[in-house]
Amino acid sequence: MEKISLDNLKTNKLSKLLCISVSITLLTGCGSGFSENDLAFKDLSRESKLSGSTITLMASSDWVTDEEMHLGTNFEAATGIQVVYDLYQDDIYLDTLFSKLDSDDPPDIFMTQSGLAIKNTYHLDKYAVDLSDEPWMAVYDPFSAAETSIDGRNYGISYFDNTTDYYMIYNKELLGNAGVTEVPTTYDTFVTMCQSVADTDVIPIYEPMADGWHQTMLFAETGQFLEKNEPGTIKKLNDNTVTFSQLRSMKLALEQIQNLALKGYMGKNFATDTYDNAVGYLANGEYAMCMLRPGMINSIVSSDMNKGFDKEDFGIMLLPVCDSQILNVHPTGPSKYISSASQNIDAAKLYLQYIATKDSIQYVIDNSHSVNDLPFDLGQTTSHDEVTMEFLDRFGNEESGLVLQDEVTYFNEQWGDISGDILKMCEGTMSPEDVLNQIDARRTSLAQAANDPAWE
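RESULT FIELD:
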């Protein structure tokens, strides 16, 4: 595979993500009969004598959609190859994964975030099968390929919608009841809005921290302003010539997040709130907003807990930490890799080939509220709606930036640890300075373990 220029791809990807063509599709079911696609895979399975085998796919619990598991059922019906989805809670997943990869019984397919860490920290060229010559590589998004590749060879497949990210989804009616007539674009006006909402006995922000991952997005996926406001800072972080604790804007960002919690704008139960309850709480009007993917508006409206809100009652805004109005762009995500120690490599490859067909991709897009597109060029029909497009159209390349975990080395690997620290910070038992110091300390440990020359 030709070595890919990451810098050029980043520029192209920012342009591509902000120029999505609008095509609205109706949700459709998937019949139980065999399609031509299924029959073709049945032939492949028969020829390779893979029928009757079982493959395991190990992942964090939020990384495999119900729609993909439905495809797994279809795959088994077509090929006779059973797929077992071995799912774990976020806070224990990575430790469990690498323990299993080093054991005598590794998963056949495993998932981890793509990006800088797969080479520096996870060494997936050791643990994963080279997939550079797989047939779906011809239609695989080049930026995604760059993020799942090591030294020009591709080891993974991203099956994640990278055309949108997590933004603040808000209830227009609840904000209107609080007298809010304009979406806030500065932190001070955001705080004023939160207080106005709270005065109407509605909790402003649903922030689920019990899962151990969502709260870090308040920091990492608003931190794209850093490079825009202080050009060259990302390189300094990666060259180890500056630390997070030395950056005043990073301290201010955490102070502002902590302030939202201490003022009660996240409610009293954020430490025990979970992500899977976000849809219900926004649907019943108990909370006014939450950081979610735009497609989740459909889930809110269709929820059994909906108190009468329509799709038009919801909008999208940025969380204006440090007064940022820079759109967060996150073109990487959880990706699938085949274990180099698997005893079922051919069956695992066939599964990846199956889910990367146009029929499979279209099924996921048509039936998942959280997926508007997948990173393949097969002429599929995307499902971006007008609300999402109106929001994205406000931002050009100059008003957009990659999130921290996509640019800063040794950051994404400690996501769960950062989440634990932010929880303590929001409870008032840890200071923003302490959080930054811990991030720096863990970066040093990870970099030294990777023999990074910048930390010698």
